[in-house]
Amino acid sequence: MSLARAPTGPRPAQELQGGVTLPPTPEKIAAKFDLSIALTLSAWPALSLAVQNSWGGPDSAEKREWFAGAISELLAATPDADVDYLEEFMLQVMNDEFDVNLEDGSAEEVAAKIVGLRKLTARGDFGMVDEMFARWEERQRKGGGEVGARFVEEEEEEESDFDTQDWEDGVDVEMGEAPDLVKVPVEKPPPEVDDEGFTKVTGKKK
To answer: By C-alpha distance, which of 118, 126, 132 is closest to 174?
Structure first.
Protein backbone atom coordinates (compact mmCIF):
# COMPACT_ATOMS: atom_id res chain seq x y z
CA MET A 1 0.00 0.00 0.00
CA SER A 2 1.62 3.25 -1.12
CA LEU A 3 1.57 6.53 0.74
CA ALA A 4 0.66 8.77 -2.17
CA ARG A 5 1.34 12.43 -1.53
CA ALA A 6 -1.88 14.28 -0.83
CA PRO A 7 -2.51 17.84 -2.04
CA THR A 8 -1.13 20.50 0.29
CA GLY A 9 -3.41 22.80 2.23
CA PRO A 10 -6.41 22.05 4.44
CA ARG A 11 -8.20 18.76 3.94
CA PRO A 12 -11.82 19.14 5.08
CA ALA A 13 -13.45 15.95 6.32
CA GLN A 14 -16.66 16.98 4.61
CA GLU A 15 -17.31 18.47 1.19
CA LEU A 16 -19.44 21.51 0.44
CA GLN A 17 -21.92 21.41 -2.42
CA GLY A 18 -24.20 24.34 -3.02
CA GLY A 19 -23.53 25.59 0.51
CA VAL A 20 -24.65 22.28 2.02
CA THR A 21 -22.18 20.19 4.00
CA LEU A 22 -22.12 16.62 2.73
CA PRO A 23 -20.73 13.64 4.63
CA PRO A 24 -17.57 12.02 3.23
CA THR A 25 -18.12 9.25 0.73
CA PRO A 26 -17.42 5.62 1.67
CA GLU A 27 -14.55 5.66 -0.82
CA LYS A 28 -12.93 8.61 0.91
CA ILE A 29 -13.39 7.03 4.33
CA ALA A 30 -11.80 3.80 3.10
CA ALA A 31 -8.89 5.68 1.49
CA LYS A 32 -8.21 7.66 4.67
CA PHE A 33 -8.34 4.54 6.82
CA ASP A 34 -5.99 2.68 4.48
CA LEU A 35 -3.59 5.62 4.67
CA SER A 36 -3.77 5.58 8.47
CA ILE A 37 -2.86 1.88 8.56
CA ALA A 38 0.17 2.38 6.32
CA LEU A 39 1.34 5.36 8.38
CA THR A 40 0.88 3.48 11.65
CA LEU A 41 2.87 0.47 10.46
CA SER A 42 5.61 2.72 9.11
CA ALA A 43 5.95 4.23 12.60
CA TRP A 44 6.11 0.84 14.37
CA PRO A 45 9.73 0.48 15.58
CA ALA A 46 9.66 -3.33 15.67
CA LEU A 47 8.47 -3.58 12.07
CA SER A 48 10.84 -0.83 10.91
CA LEU A 49 13.75 -2.75 12.45
CA ALA A 50 12.66 -5.94 10.68
CA VAL A 51 12.42 -4.13 7.35
CA GLN A 52 15.74 -2.31 7.73
CA ASN A 53 17.52 -5.58 8.51
CA SER A 54 15.63 -7.53 5.79
CA TRP A 55 14.44 -10.12 8.28
CA GLY A 56 11.56 -10.77 5.91
CA GLY A 57 13.92 -11.30 3.00
CA PRO A 58 14.95 -8.90 0.22
CA ASP A 59 11.33 -7.85 -0.30
CA SER A 60 10.77 -6.85 3.34
CA ALA A 61 9.64 -3.33 2.41
CA GLU A 62 7.07 -4.73 -0.01
CA LYS A 63 5.88 -7.08 2.71
CA ARG A 64 5.22 -4.10 4.97
CA GLU A 65 2.98 -2.60 2.29
CA TRP A 66 1.26 -5.96 1.85
CA PHE A 67 0.85 -6.11 5.65
CA ALA A 68 -1.08 -2.82 5.59
CA GLY A 69 -3.37 -4.10 2.85
CA ALA A 70 -3.94 -7.37 4.69
CA ILE A 71 -5.02 -5.50 7.84
CA SER A 72 -7.41 -3.36 5.79
CA GLU A 73 -8.96 -6.44 4.19
CA LEU A 74 -9.19 -8.24 7.54
CA LEU A 75 -11.05 -5.37 9.20
CA ALA A 76 -13.32 -4.91 6.19
CA ALA A 77 -14.27 -8.57 6.34
CA THR A 78 -14.54 -8.55 10.16
CA PRO A 79 -16.17 -5.25 11.19
CA ASP A 80 -16.49 -6.31 14.84
CA ALA A 81 -12.78 -7.20 15.19
CA ASP A 82 -11.37 -5.83 18.43
CA VAL A 83 -7.82 -5.00 19.57
CA ASP A 84 -7.08 -8.55 20.75
CA TYR A 85 -8.21 -10.06 17.45
CA LEU A 86 -6.09 -7.66 15.41
CA GLU A 87 -3.10 -8.03 17.71
CA GLU A 88 -3.15 -11.81 17.31
CA PHE A 89 -3.23 -11.45 13.53
CA MET A 90 -0.35 -8.97 13.55
CA LEU A 91 1.79 -11.14 15.80
CA GLN A 92 1.20 -14.08 13.46
CA VAL A 93 2.26 -12.04 10.43
CA MET A 94 5.39 -10.79 12.19
CA ASN A 95 6.30 -14.36 13.04
CA ASP A 96 5.47 -15.90 9.66
CA GLU A 97 6.70 -13.14 7.33
CA PHE A 98 9.53 -11.50 9.30
CA ASP A 99 10.63 -14.32 11.60
CA VAL A 100 10.08 -12.05 14.62
CA ASN A 101 8.52 -13.28 17.86
CA LEU A 102 7.31 -10.15 19.64
CA GLU A 103 6.71 -10.13 23.37
CA ASP A 104 7.19 -6.42 24.09
CA GLY A 105 3.52 -5.42 23.96
CA SER A 106 4.04 -3.13 20.96
CA ALA A 107 1.68 -5.14 18.75
CA GLU A 108 -1.17 -4.43 21.18
CA GLU A 109 -0.33 -0.72 21.05
CA VAL A 110 -0.34 -0.65 17.25
CA ALA A 111 -3.52 -2.71 17.05
CA ALA A 112 -5.29 -0.35 19.47
CA LYS A 113 -4.15 2.63 17.42
CA ILE A 114 -5.52 1.13 14.21
CA VAL A 115 -8.84 0.22 15.83
CA GLY A 116 -9.13 3.75 17.18
CA LEU A 117 -8.38 5.24 13.78
CA ARG A 118 -11.01 3.03 12.20
CA LYS A 119 -13.62 4.52 14.54
CA LEU A 120 -12.49 8.07 13.82
CA THR A 121 -12.40 7.72 10.05
CA ALA A 122 -15.72 5.88 10.00
CA ARG A 123 -17.43 8.95 11.39
CA GLY A 124 -15.63 11.29 9.00
CA ASP A 125 -13.04 12.56 11.46
CA PHE A 126 -9.80 12.69 9.48
CA GLY A 127 -7.92 15.16 11.66
CA MET A 128 -5.64 12.61 13.27
CA VAL A 129 -4.83 10.91 9.96
CA ASP A 130 -3.94 14.28 8.42
CA GLU A 131 -1.66 15.06 11.37
CA MET A 132 0.08 11.71 10.97
CA PHE A 133 0.53 12.36 7.26
CA ALA A 134 1.93 15.82 7.96
CA ARG A 135 4.51 14.30 10.33
CA TRP A 136 5.40 11.75 7.67
CA GLU A 137 5.86 14.54 5.10
CA GLU A 138 8.09 16.40 7.55
CA ARG A 139 10.29 13.31 7.88
CA GLN A 140 10.50 13.15 4.11
CA ARG A 141 11.64 16.78 3.90
CA LYS A 142 14.33 16.06 6.47
CA GLY A 143 15.54 13.08 4.46
CA GLY A 144 14.43 10.60 7.09
CA GLY A 145 13.00 8.05 4.73
CA GLU A 146 13.13 6.22 1.45
CA VAL A 147 11.40 7.23 -1.75
CA GLY A 148 7.65 6.67 -1.92
CA ALA A 149 5.93 4.70 0.79
CA ARG A 150 9.04 3.55 2.62
CA PHE A 151 10.79 5.60 5.22
CA VAL A 152 12.98 4.97 8.22
CA GLU A 153 11.29 5.68 11.50
CA GLU A 154 13.13 8.34 13.49
CA GLU A 155 13.96 7.35 17.03
CA GLU A 156 11.83 8.98 19.70
CA GLU A 157 13.81 10.68 22.47
CA GLU A 158 11.37 9.78 25.19
CA GLU A 159 9.14 6.81 25.88
CA SER A 160 5.53 7.40 26.82
CA ASP A 161 3.06 5.48 28.93
CA PHE A 162 0.42 3.62 26.93
CA ASP A 163 -3.15 2.71 27.60
CA THR A 164 -5.00 0.74 24.92
CA GLN A 165 -8.22 2.47 25.95
CA ASP A 166 -6.72 5.80 24.84
CA TRP A 167 -6.51 4.68 21.23
CA GLU A 168 -9.85 2.92 21.29
CA ASP A 169 -11.29 6.27 22.38
CA GLY A 170 -9.44 8.09 19.61
CA VAL A 171 -6.71 9.76 21.69
CA ASP A 172 -3.36 10.35 19.98
CA VAL A 173 -0.62 8.39 21.77
CA GLU A 174 3.01 8.45 20.65
CA MET A 175 4.72 5.10 20.44
CA GLY A 176 8.00 4.71 22.34
CA GLU A 177 11.31 3.32 21.24
CA ALA A 178 11.88 -0.29 20.34
CA PRO A 179 13.34 -2.19 23.30
CA ASP A 180 17.01 -3.11 23.24
CA LEU A 181 17.88 -6.69 22.43
CA VAL A 182 18.86 -8.45 25.64
CA LYS A 183 20.93 -11.61 25.78
CA VAL A 184 19.46 -14.31 27.98
CA PRO A 185 22.05 -15.61 30.49
CA VAL A 186 22.89 -19.30 30.25
CA GLU A 187 22.28 -21.19 33.47
CA LYS A 188 25.35 -22.93 34.90
CA PRO A 189 24.98 -26.66 35.65
CA PRO A 190 25.08 -27.64 39.36
CA PRO A 191 28.50 -28.77 40.69
CA GLU A 192 29.23 -32.49 40.71
CA VAL A 193 30.11 -34.03 44.09
CA ASP A 194 31.95 -37.38 44.39
CA ASP A 195 31.34 -40.12 46.95
CA GLU A 196 33.77 -38.54 49.43
CA GLY A 197 32.01 -35.21 49.39
CA PHE A 198 34.53 -33.32 47.22
CA THR A 199 33.37 -31.05 44.44
CA LYS A 200 34.63 -32.02 41.01
CA VAL A 201 36.27 -29.26 38.95
CA THR A 202 35.35 -29.40 35.25
CA GLY A 203 37.03 -27.40 32.50
CA LYS A 204 35.31 -25.44 29.75
CA LYS A 205 34.40 -27.35 26.64
CA LYS A 206 36.37 -26.32 23.58
So the answer is: 132
Q: In a structure prediction context, what are the per-residue pLDDT tens digits for the chain, which is 206 residues long?
A: 555 555 444 444 455 555 677 889 999 999 999 999 999 999 999 999 999 999 999 999 999 999 999 999 999 999 999 999 999 999 999 999 999 999 999 999 999 999 999 999 999 999 999 999 999 999 888 875 443 343 333 333 333 333 444 444 444 444 444 333 333 333 444 555 566 655 554 444 44
> How far is residue 159's CA from residue 177's CA, in Å, rounded to a whole number?
6
- CA distance linking residue 130 with residue 107, whole number of Å: 23
- How far apart are alpha carbons 170 and 52 in whole angstroms? 30
Distances (CA, A) of 84 to 134, 164, 204: 29, 10, 47
Closest CA to 97 of 45, 49, 50, 52: 50
Residue type, 166: D
Closest C-alpha among 62, 80, 73 to residue 1:
62
Say how many Å lie between the first and final Cα of the chain, rounded.
51
Q: Helices (DSSP H) in 82-180: which residue ranges?
A: 83-98, 106-122, 127-141, 164-168
CB 93 within 8 A of CB 73: no
Residue pair 56/63 in contact by the 8 Å Cβ criterion: yes
Pairing of strands 20-22, 15-17: antiparallel
